[in-house]
Amino acid sequence: MSLPVLRLNKNADRRLKAGHIWIYSNEIDNKVTPLTALQPGDQAVIENNTGKALGIASINPQTLICGRLISRDIRKPLDVSLLVHRIKIALGLRQQCFDKPFYRLVFGDSDLLPGLVVDRFGDYLVVQIATAGMEALKDEIVAALVKVLKPIGVLLRNDGNMRQLESLPEYVEVAYGDVPEVVELEENGVKFLAPLHTGQKTGWFYDHRPGRQRLQHYSKDKRVLDVFSYIGGWGVQAAAAGASEVICLDSSGQALDLAEQSAELNGVRDNFQTMEGDAFEGLRQLRDAGEQFDVVVVDPPAFIKRKKDIAKGEQAYRRINELAMRLLGREGLLVSASCSMHLQRDRLVDLLRAGSRHLDRNLQVFEQTHQGADHPIHPAIPETEYIKSLFARVYMQ
Predict the structure, then answer these.
(1) Residue 65 CA neighbour count, 13 Å, CB half
(2) Strand pairing of 223-227 and 190-195?
(3) Paired residues of 333 in beta bridges
(4) Which of 153, 285, 342, 346 has its CA 20 to 30 A from that of 87?
(5) CATH number at residue 64
(6) C-alpha to C-alpha distance for 82 and 73, rounded to whole angstroms
(7) Domain count, the chain
């Protein structure tokens, strides 16, 4: 297959040589190889300014990140064969790390499949495609997944915000076999029901698995509040670990219904409650009612989605965590989590410190957790490291 060529400006190859895989539109030598000559989803050979080939990239000339390196061997474009190879490599890591088939199977750039996410729920796979390059290979992706894993069904959840950046249409469809609306999964020994067709993202968030496992250690005989609970990822695990009472607070009644069903599935429905409403307002209502908890978990959606949102987002993180601190009893435990790539771990610590001092309380961060092993970090791409959770004791002098 003969591929078009894109040549880079002088020194624009440094990042690729260091291991990165992104190419920005202003790095292309448009006088020699016009970017506009290519179509979204095309594959092209990337050369440095002297004409040395660096690899093959998937291209979208309409976006700031106009290329993503998919192969460093110009003889091997991304096709079914290479997809099968990469998926097998990704599967090998997950099988080393987990003894049951519930995990993120493909994590985009980190698995050298930029723009592709695949979550595994036993015999069912949920796929998210975020780039034009991967969209062009949609059928090949499904064929490769079927060949490697032989699933009962494959669902395409292509309705995320990232697709808008690539000018891709949004849709949800079963691409292979049959996929039920709700499936059962297991995490840290606890069972859940996840809404694959209509839930957030792929229906479940595997990324905070280590933090939720540690929460179990601190939950026995404790009164626990799970804020932004979704379907109870933190709260149900706390209940299963012996919490005396768990309340899950979320704005989605549908999500809370599934949280209750998951609690029932694990035999802990009697000490499990839900509260539907806005998280900020719900915390204020609990405070005004004089409620106190031994443990409060705050795991909000990404308050900082873009760099321009940092100031406003940091204010939101501080407000929600300060509200949570007000509900803690003597020497209470705050679990503050974030999935915002643009919020650095040290900055989250600083926001918690500022909130605790505003309340004239002391704060001790005594444990920190990271994203799970099924979300490996690409060492050249800091954006692949985004999950953080801090376990902190909040107490009076």
Answers:
(1) 16
(2) unpaired
(3) 295, 393
(4) 342
(5) 2.30.130.10
(6) 11
(7) 3
With DSSP H G I counted as helix, E B as strand and the rest as coil, what are the percentages for the chain, rounded to 5? Answer: 35, 30, 35
109, 20 Cβ separation under 8 angstroms: no
Q: What is the pTM of this model?
A: 0.96
Which CATH number characterizes residue 120's domain? 3.30.750.80
The catalytic residues are 339
Please state, in angstroms and rounded to a whole number, the distance separating the CA atoms of residues 232 and 212.
11
- Cα atoms in the 13 Å half-sphere on the side-chain side of 147: 15
Co-location of 268 and 340 in the same domain? yes
327: containing domain: 184-395
Q: What is the 3-state secondary structure (H, E, C) of 144-204?
A: HHHHHHCCCEEEEEECCCHHHHCCCCCEEEEEEECCCCEEEEEECCEEEEEECCCCCCCCC
- Give pLDDT tens digits for 282-334: 999 999 999 999 999 999 999 998 889 999 999 999 999 999 999 999 889 99
Q: What is the CATH number of the domain that holds 212?
A: 3.40.50.150
State pLDDT tens for residues 226-256.
999 999 999 999 999 999 999 999 999 999 9
5 Rama sector, left if φ>0, alpha if ψ -120 to 50, beta otherwise = beta
Shared domain check, 215 and 250: yes
Euclidean distance between CA atoms 184 and 162, whole angstroms: 27
Sheet holding 153-158, edge to edge: 102-107, 116-121, 124-129, 153-158, 171-177
Residue 160 has pLDDT above 90, yes or no: no
